[in-house]
Structures are given as structure tokens and as C-alpha cells.
Design brief:
heterodimer, A: mainly alpha, MetI-like fold, two-stranded antiparallel ribbon, globular, B: mainly alpha
């Protein structure tokens, strides 16, 4: 008997998974589009009936409210757009400083969990459990309360060596009068140079196996460029030092109690999570790796630097990125203590101008941009650090 | 030749490594650095502890006596504020004489949560029981039937609100999260992109912006003449937010599942939904339990943010109770510490429970 091929299914049968796939997709897309259209239509209708105006023209009109602390010049007679930009800068300020500090505290506490001293282990464990299990909003409110109630009034501020003053008015500290920008610019150029230096040394090491110190050279390079920047600025040596007057602390650079409360709250809260990330990362390196390193005759320090940390970092980086993003997003709670971040200023703008839709869109856009760009950068870094399989 | 047996000298007995003294030696005074740290920490504790104990215990005022509290200000804590206001903090603006209703409703809901945590009750009827618990909760809180006085939702507050927001959002977010996670792993490009956009959009913005949206924009979204209750709006907001995070956790579980499982299911001729329901989800969900518990804890903590859109959960109820009373307003720190304790107890029990579940899971994996 001749072999008969099975009858071919019609291409457009309902039983073919390709056809079903198309049907499902068309259904989903039309449902989503119908939903969006429905909400959009209702919104237009409601706004028309209630007489709510829409559009972005309000960004140009006069804001009329003052902002407690700004990084750039701002005056109430300027526009809403400028006010929101001031808020964005304030958000970035607290997020960037917070990320640096929280990394330091978090890593210290995470490593402290492995201390040989039982008291240190216990303290670090207690810290993590305590601060991780209380909502960040509550912590921010408590820090703010401590800053404005428990600290002494500004006419009798606590001071350290006559340089740092802490009071209800905030923290004042000395700061160079000018030339900071030039020094930072110099350091940034040095950083790029240092990057290339390390890269060349790494290639040299991979080619020849000759290892050389890769810390002091780049560090010296950065320092050199920073000094060059200082020289370009004309070697200013004047410092703006705060001093105690009869009623207040004057001079220097001051951090407001709102800023301090947000910063301290975010740093302490996020550090508890970072400590856990670091701990689980170090624990994820299998015991065999450490034993093998000891068998090869590496000492404790080399073992940590060459064997444990490079492997732990791969586990640590992705969740660490998440914590950085969480810190940035949690900085939006600054609205509860009155720190003028972007959410707080957008909130004021909503109350004054009634443009809720636009302002919420701006808030979301600001955070989306930060989140997506940070995660893109960290993904790139993560890929560089990932195991290169040959 | 007579050999005489001359024993060699016996070895010294091994150093004792268990017990109190060796533990102290090894863990507190192993070398000079460790000893120095120990002394430093003990010194620090001795420096801080007496002052703190005096403030919190010995000089504190527990009676609800505003004058005594005022007198002890600065030297002792005023726990009297808790004695005086705990009912307002725990139940918010709910009518005072009807406080037994939120108390009973919260107890039933917490009881339901505790039952769901016990292995013995992990049966299909648990889901039905939850519908019952939610029905009883809303009947008790809202009233209007069985001779219960009706209470508007904007008067609900305090602990019942916190527990209800967290439980209901988790309950509602779970099915959405499963669908979105499956959608993100689907090979149909349109469905996949919709899910990716949803997840990334929500995860990229803070919860507070979603809550702002719920409170300012949701009323505009509804058709004319259909007002939407503020509680419903906030629940929808938190649910949508939580679902995106849960979907990512479930996706992690799905990705960890070996491909062979799917191929075996295909070979057996199971359909897509049969495969997901019988093969993929049971294994994937079991893998995600520890991470999921962590997420539940953060949802519980995040419900405190509804304070910012004017719902009076614990923090809001406390501010309301204290701001309106000049006598007790200066003692906010003590009231904050009380709320901290409430949150801490809930969160730490959840995290202990999650450790226990993790242990149970590793038991099933051991051979």
C-alpha cells in the first residue's frame, strides 16, 4: 500500500496555534485600546463639564510661591516650569548624596554580619531587623520630629570645633568660597584618565601576566587634575566658615532640617536592605572557593580581594541597583516632611493651577527617566562584570 | 630478652571548644582587635543605655495625665499619650461607641491570615473562606444591615484600614500578577509588549504618584454620574502597583523552571492552559514563596502612604488625634514609637513566618 501523507490542515483553521495567536492578540489589543479610549473619552468629557482646562501652557505662567531651598536661583515671580525644575534638582540632590552614603553604611553593616566579634554581629543584625520592618514614611516623620523638636534652638547650637553647627535650623558646615566647580571638573577629567589607565594595565596584565598596582596610579592622576583645576581657578584659599551669632548661626553652607530628615531617613532605611544584599552576596560564594584559595596559599586579604569579592559582586550588583532605584523613588515621600522635591512642588502646582493630569504626568516622567536610565547603565555594567564564558 | 612495655607520654587533652567560656574567648576576645571592639561596644552601651532606660522606663508617665506628662517633659517619656489616645490611633475617626465593630472585623481578618499561614488549612476551601471573611469585614465596618448603624468609608481609619488595604490588594493583585507574568513570557508579540509596558511603567514610578493618580485622576476617568469611592480608588491604585512587582517575582519563578518540564507537557499533548495550570504554575509559585513574602511585607508597609492622599490609617489617625488636642500635641514621639511597635510586630512575624516556609520548602527538595 502506498504511504499517504496526512491531510494538510487548512492554513486558517481555528485549531492552528498561529491563527489562535493572532486572534488572541487582536482581542487583547482591541480591549486595551478600547479601555484607554474609554478612560480618555470620559476624562475629556468630565474636564469639559467641570470646566477644567488642560494643556501645557501653565508651565510658562507665574508660580507665585516661594521654595524653601533651591540649588539654582529662583524667585516666586518665575514660572511653574522653573519651579518644577528646581524640584527635580532637589530630588536628584537628595538621591545622589543618599546613594553614596547608604552604600557606605550598608556595606559596612553587611560585612559586619560576618565579624568575628559576636557583639558586632548582633548589633548589625539588630540594625537590619529594626529599620527594615518599619515603614519609611514613619521613619522620615520621626527624624523630622527629632530634628525640629529635640535639637537645641539656633541661638545655642551644638558645635564641633567651631566648624560644624547643629540646631533646629539645620546643619551648617564650612565650604570653600569659590573654585569648587573647577576642582570637580578637574577631578572628572582625571577620572576619565584613570579609567583608561586601569584599562591599559588590565590589558597588559592579560597579555603578559605581569600584575601591577592599579590603585595608586589612577588615584594620583585624579588628584593631579583636581589640583590643576584649583590652579586654573586661581588657587582660592578662602573658606566660608559658619559662626554663632546671638540669635542664629550664620555663614557656611547650611542643610535644612527637612533635607537632613529626608537624607538621614532614606540612608538608614535603605542601608538595612543593602546590608542584606551584601550579606547574601557574600554567602552565595561557595565554601569550596574559599577552601581552594586557602589551599593555594592565598592569605585572608588576598582571598577576599581576588576570590570572594569578584564573585560576590556579580550576585550583589542587580539587587543593589534595585535598592538605588528604591531610594530614588522613596525620596518622593519628602512631600510628607515638606522638603521641596519634585512631588511636593508638583503637588503645590496642582493645588494652585488645577492641572492634575499634566503634573502627575510630569512626576511620572521624571521618575521613569531616572529609573530607566539607571537600570540601562547598571545592565551595561552588569554585562561587563558577568562571567565571560569562552 | 624481655621486652618491657614503656608507654609514650599521653597527649594533652584537646582544648574544649564548647560551652560558655570558650565561646566568649572565641567570639568576644579572640585577639586584641576583637577585645578592643568588645570593650568599645560595651562602653557605648553603658554610656547610652542608662539615659535611655531612665527616659523610657523610670521617669516615664504611663497614666493618662497631661499635667504629669508636661512636668516630666525632657526627662521622661509620656506613655500616657498612648493610654489616652490608643483607641483613636487604632480606629481613627470611626464612631467612638461603635469601636467594637472595627475591633471584631480586624480580629476576624487577622485570624483569617493566621489560619492561612498554617499548613493544615492549605485546602481549596480556604479561598471560599476568604470571600466569607471579606464579606463579614465589610458588613461589620460599613454597617447598614442587621441593625448596624451605616458608617461612611471616609470615616474608616487606623489599623483596620491598614490590614484591609494590604490584604485586599494582595488578594486582588495575585491573579493579575499571574496573568501578566505569563503574558510577559508569551511568544505572542502584542501580548508580550502590553505586559512589558505595564510592568516597566509601574515599576519605574513611586507608589505615591500612583496614589496621586488614584485620588486626582480616577474621578475624571469615570463616566458621568458614577462617583467612585475614595477607598475603592486607593485599593485599585495599590493593587495595580503591587501586581507589577508580583508579576516580576512570578516571572523569576517561571524562568527558573527547567525547559524539560514544558517539553514533557507538550509531549503529553497538554494544551497551553493545562500546561500552565498543572505543570508550570505549581512549581514556579512554590519557588517564589520567600521573595513573595518579602513583597507582602513591603506592601503592608507601603499602605502607610495613603496618609498622603488623606486616608487616616495608623499614622494619619495619630496625627488627627494629636493635632486636635493641645494637651497631648507635644508627645508625638511617644505616639510614633507606639505605631512603630505595631508595624514592627506585624512585619517581624511575617518575616519569621517566611523563614519557616523556606525551611518547609527545602525539606521537600531534600532526598
Amino acid at each position: 500500500m502506498k504511504h499517504q501523507p496526512p491531510p494538510q490542515k487548512r492554513a486558517w483553521s481555528l485549531n492552528s496555534s498561529a491563527t489562535r495567536g493572532i486572534i488572541f492578540q487582536v482581542l487583547t489589543l482591541s480591549l486595551v485600546l478600547a479601555g484607554v479610549w474609554f478612560l480618555w473619552h470620559n476624562m475629556q468629557e468630565n474636564m469639559r463639564i467641570r470646566g477644567i482646562e488642560s494643556g501645557w501652557d501653565f508651565l510658562g505662567s507665574t508660580a507665585g510661591f516661594d521654595i524653601g531651598e533651591t540649588m539654582i536661583e529662583y524667585h516666586p515671580s518665575e514660572s511653574y516650569g522653573k519651579a518644577i525644575w528646581v524640584g527635580v534638582l532637589n530630588t536628584l540632590k537628595v538621591a545622589v548624596i543618599g546613594i553614596v552614603l547608604t552604600t557606605l553604611v550598608g556595606v559596612l553593616i553587611g560585612v559586619g554580619r560576618f565579624s568575628r566579634n559576636a557583639l558586632v554581629r548582633g548589633l548589625c543584625y539588630g540594625y537590619v531587623e529594626l529599620f527594615r520592618n518599619v515603614p519609611i514614611l514613619l521613619q522620615l516623620l520621626m527624624w523630622y520630629l527629632i530634628f525640629i523638636e529635640v535639637l537645641p534652638p539656633s541661638n545655642e547650637a551644638w558645635n564641633v570645633a567651631g566648624l560644624f553647627f547643629l540646631s533646629k535650623g539645620g546643619l551648617s558646615f564650612p565650604f570653600p568660597t569659590d573654585g569648587v566647580g573647577q576642582v570637580l571638573a578637574g577631578a572628572a577629567i582625571g577620572l576619565v584618565g584613570a579609567w583608561f589607565w586601569r584599562d591599559r594595565k588590565q590589558k597588559h596584565f592579560e597579555l603578559t601576566g605581569q600584575n601591577s598596582n592599579r590603585i595608586w596610579g589612577p588615584a594620583a592622576l585624579i588628584l593631579m587634575f583636581a589640583v590643576a583645576g584649583w590652579a586654573v581657578a586661581g588657587m582660592p584659599t578662602a573658606w566660608n566658615v559658619p559662626e554663632q551669632l546671638i540669635f542664629m548661626v550664620d555663614g557656611g553652607v547650611a542643610a535644612t532640617p527637612e533635607f537632613m530628615a529626608v537624607l538621614v531617613g532614606l540612608v538608614i532605611y535603605t542601608a538595612a536592605f543593602i546590608a542584606e544584599v551584601v550579606r547574601s552576596g557574600i554567602q552565595s560564594v561557595s565554601a569550596g572557593q574559599v577552601e581552594a584559595a586557602l589551599a593555594l596559599g592565598l592569605n585572608q586579604k588576598q582571598n577576599m580581594k581576588l576570590v570572594v569579592l569578584p564573585q560576590a559582586l556579580r550576585v550583589i550588583i542587580p539587587p543593589m541597583t534595585n535598592q538605588y532605584l528604591n531610594l530614588t523613588k522613596n525620596s518622593s515621600l519628602a512631600v510628607a516632611v515638606g522638603y521641596p522635591d519634585v512631588v511636593s512642588i508638583a503637588n503645590t502646582t496642582i493645588n494652585q493651577s488645577g492641572r492634575a493630569v499634566e503634573c502627575i504626568a510630569i512626576i511620572m516622567l521624571v521618575y521613569l527617566t531616572t529609573s530607566l536610565s539607571t537600570s540601562a547603565f547598571m545592565n551595561w555594567y552588569n554585562q561587563r562584570m558577568a562571567i565571560k564564558e569562552r | 630478652m624481655a621486652d618491657t612495655f614503656i608507654p609514650i607520654a599521653s597527649r594533652p587533652s584537646p582544648v574544649k571548644v564548647t560551652g560558655f567560656v570558650p565561646w566568649v574567648q572565641g567570639n568576644l576576645f579572640a585577639d586584641w582587635r576583637s577585645s578592643l571592639t568588645t570593650l568599645f561596644v560595651i562602653g557605648l552601651v553603658l554610656y547610652v543605655l542608662p539615659g535611655f532606660a531612665n527616659w523610657a522606663i523610670f521617669n516615664s508617665v504611663v497614666r493618662a495625665d497631661a499635667d504629669a506628662c508636661q512636668a516630666a517633659r525632657g526627662v521622661g517619656a509620656c506613655w500616657g499619650v498612648v493610654t489616652e489616645k490608643y483607641r483613636l490611633i487604632l480606629f481613627g475617626r470611626y464612631p467612638y461607641e461603635d469601636h467594637w465593630r472595627p475591633l471584631l472585623a480586624t480580629s476576624i481578618m487577622v485570624g483569617g491570615l493566621v489560619l492561612s499561614c498554617m499548613r493544615y488549612f492549605w485546602k481549596p476551601w480556604l479561598v471560599i473562606m476568604w470571600f466569607g471573611v471579606l464579606a463579614v469585614f465589610f458588613t461589620l465596618m460599613g454597617g447598614g444591615v442587621f441593625g448596624l448603624e451605616p458608617v461612611r468609608t471616609d470615616l474608616w481609619g487606623g489599623l483596620p484600614l491598614t490590614v484591609m488595604l494590604a490584604t485586599l490588594s494582595i488578594f486582588l493583585a495575585f491573579p493579575i500578577a499571574i496573568m501578566v507574568a505569563l503574558g510577559r513570557r508569551s511568544n505572542l508579540p502584542a501580548i508580550r509588549s502590553v505586559c512589558i509596558v505595564y510592568i516597566e511603567l509601574i515599576r519605574g514610578v513611586p507608589l505615591i504618584s500612583v496614589l496621586f493618580m488614584a485620588s486626582f485622576m480616577f474621578p475624571l476617568f469615570m463616566p458621568q454620574g458614577m462617583p467612585i469611592d475614595v477607598l475603592v480608588r486607593v485599593v485599585v491604585g495599590i493593587t495595580l502597583f503591587a501586581a507589577a512587582y508580583m508579576a516580576e517575582i512570578i516571572r523569576g519563578g517561571l524562568q527558573a523552571l527547567p525547559k524539560g518540564q514544558l517539553e514533557a507537557a507538550d509531549t503529553l499533548g497538554l494544551s497551553y492552559w493545562q500546561t500552565q495550570r498543572k505543570i508550570v504554575l505549581p512549581q514556579a509559585l512554590a519557588m517564589t514563596v520567600p521573595t513573595m513574602m518579602g513583597n507582602f511585607i513591603s506592601i503592608f508597609k507601603d499602605t502607610s502612604l495613603v496618609f498622603i492622599v488623606s486616608l487616616y490609617e495608623l499614622v494619619g489617625a495619630m496625627s488627627l488625634a494629636l493635632n486636635s488636642d493641645v494637651n497631648w500635641r507635644p508627645f508625638k514621639i511617644e505616639a510614633y514609637l507606639f505605631i512603630t511597635l505595631v508595624y514592627f510586630i506585624f512585619c517581624i512575624s511575617m518575616s519569621r513566618y517566611s523563614l519557616w516556609v523556606e525551611k518547609q520548602l527545602s525539606v521537600s527538595k531534600a532526598r
